[in-house]
Each structure stands twice: as C-alpha cells, then as structure tokens.
Design goal:
Blueprint: H1 10-21, H2 27-34, H3 38-51, H4 62-69, H5 77-101
Helix pairs in contact: 1-3, 3-5
Length: 103
C-alpha cells in the first residue's frame, strides 16, 4: 500500500520545533499534540540546530530574492540566518539551564 507523503509548511515545522524545545512539554506530548512521529520531530530539531530556522524555508527562488534585496558583500542572508539560528538555539539552551539551576 503506497500513500502520499505529507508535506508540512515551514511555519508548521518551525512551530513544532520551537514547542519541542520548551521545557514545560516533553517530546511525547508534542508528538501527540501534532500527530507526528518522534523521529520526524527529532530530525527537524537536528536540522534546525545545525542550519538555523531557515532550513525550513522554501529555497526555490533564493538567488533572485538575494539579488533583488541588494545585500552587501559579507552580509549574505545565509550568514545572518545562520547567526540567528545559532543564537535562538543558544537562547533556548540557556533558558533550560537556568531552569535546572533554579534561577
């Protein structure tokens, strides 16, 4: 039996990943809430941690968007997005560690 693969919007993936990082909820709770397998959420989390939030974005017209927006050399949107992703992950980890320390 062959079924259609489900495709999820970048916004949905981002929402699921962010919710899975919340210390108030477990991965199992997030799986039940969104009806997803833990392996899917774990893969999305890993991709997010490695490449930042834009890993979920649609990249079809990526080159033309960059040219139209006129980014300066050394300030590529990929670099900035990577920095934002890294900072978001660091922020979540700091929040979690602060909660563990009781502050």
């Amino acid at each position: 039996m062959t079924g259609k693969r489900k495709t999820y919007t970048p916004e949905f993936k981002f929402k699921v990943v962010m919710e899975s990082f919340q210390r108030e909820t477990t991965l199992e709770e997030v799986c039940r809430k969104f009806g997803l397998a833990s392996s899917v959420i774990s893969r999305w989390r890993q991709e997010f941690q490695q490449k930042g939030p834009e890993i979920f974005a649609d990249q079809r017209d990526h080159k033309t968007r960059n040219q139209a927006q006129g980014y300066a050399p050394g300030e590529s949107p990929e670099e900035l997005k990577q920095l934002i992703g890294d900072l978001a992950v660091q922020n979540e980890l700091l929040k979690k560690s602060r909660g563990l320390l009781g502050n």
